[in-house]
């Protein structure tokens, strides 16, 4: 607790005001599947099964129809709720946070169309740092999808994730590698030539190599379990898994358990079975 208070008494923040200004202009466009966020809509086809199957493979206790029932998920940088909603439909209890109030308004409005989601998802206009003190070791799972390449202080961000995640909880990250190829494809082609994302959305200097992310996670009490490369096909508008992590990649890490005490359990892990999970693994 002392460490936590010392960390948050500093001026460190993971929120980048320049990034907020970029996304402010797009806050009303999150649910336009053909618009600026079309690649994020189609990314759900692989990132949602990746999260679901990884969690189910860690435990055999799940409910058909609502496989993530009882699992508390924090969606950091949730935007308009593009990932929060499908996770809620899988039965999870989702808290989506985003520092932009306009994003939260969009997410709340879209959620209200579905009474089931209205009960399972809550949104809050907040940075990750702002919820740490009230949410210590609260969540079973954190997802930060296409977020870490926009934060101002990545180490502070990872430390905050560790603070609000239960021991043995899972952290899922998708982001962009810092390579020459990622500059060509992620910025020159995607932003300047094809225009699948607005120009200026990304800064190559803020892209994060998987080795750097893994080092930060390991030094903050996480064990990295999976790193998968991801490939976007702009012609078909679809994503697929690939071995190379030279452009986009997904990572799954698990927070170490508290020493000398039993770790908290969630609906997926409290009744361990000797039988393997019925679902296929996330790695394709």
Mean pLDDT: 84
Strand content: 15-25%
* Sheet with most strands: strand arrangement: 3-2-1-4-5-8-6-7
List the secondary-structure elements in sequence, H or E.
Answer: HHHEHEHHEHEHEHHEEE
Distance between the termini: 40 Å
Count of discrete alpha- or pi-helical segments spanning 4 or more residues:
10
Q: Can you tell me the overall shape?
A: globular
Give the radius of gyration: 18 Å
Helical proportion? 25-40%
Low-confidence stretches: 1-11, 260-267, 269-284
Count of extended strands: 8
Let me know the largest β-sheet: 8 strands, mixed
User: Which structural class fits the helix and strand makeup?
Assistant: alpha/beta
Q: Summed up, what is this model?
A:
The protein is an alpha/beta fold and 284 residues long. 34% of the residues lie in helices and 21% in strands.
What this model shows, in words?
The chain starts with a helix and ends in a 29-residue tail after the last strand. It is globular. With 284 residues, it is an alpha/beta fold. It is built from ten helices and eight strands.
Features:
284 residues, alpha/beta, 8-stranded mixed β-sheet, 10 helices, 8 strands
Architecture blueprint of SSEs:
Elements: H1 2-8, H2 17-24, H3 38-57, E1 72-76, H4 84-89, E2 93-98, H5 101-111, H6 115-120, E3 121-125, H7 128-131, E4 139-145, H8 154-164, E5 165-176, H9 180-193, H10 210-219, E6 222-233, E7 238-242, E8 248-255
Parallel strand pairs: 1-2, 1-4, 2-3, 4-5
Antiparallel strand pairs: 5-8, 6-7, 6-8
